[in-house]
Amino acid sequence: MMPRARPAERYRARIAVVGGDRDPGLHRTTGVLESEPSFDVLTDHSIGRDRLTLLDRAQPDVVLVGRFPGRPDLIALMAREVMDASGRTARLVALATGAPDAELRAVLRAGAIGFLRADARRATVIEVILRAAEGAVPSGSTAATTLATAFAAPPRQPGAGARLGQLTRRERDVLRLVAKGLSNGEIAAQLVVTTSTVKTHMNAILGKLGLRDRVQATVFAYESGLVRPGGP
Where does the record place the HTH luxR-type domain (predicted)? Predict the structure, then answer.
């Protein structure tokens, strides 16, 4: 009689945590991740080439980027370095503590697919990181509200108007609704089109503007002036 095959071992997502070693919010969130059986967690507080070497070797599924208070330039630089070191589409999640600020704006511009509050519940931490590991982008009204707050007074980016002019009127309509946190289904219902049509428009928007995902599209919508906090 043939021996019964052992069940395949469940995949464990590889999570790298990078950032300042004096950030209590980052330490708390790291503890939550380390207690979750679905994750293998690499914590790295080194800088420069040492950090990039470790990330290149580990090839994590998700990188949680901590905060460097008062240094939005440093956190954006680190985010870009992490993306380069990964050698593939990076799945960065930014840690946010308190009100959204310049640091969160910087890391979102640099390519983070979402953000996670340092005081988030355990279930929320696990859900956000699992979704990021699967390549999903956090969306919905809560995420849109946080982004709107982060870009309450965004500086107009040079050339944003010309880039916005590349979009058709319907593509601008879709982008405006994406920035407000609507799902593809909700956008389809509001514009009276099919979900596949919305996806086609969204792909065209990302391609024309050279953006990676809905988060970067939302950032662009605010920085270009297409959407304004508190506007219709």
Answer: 160-225
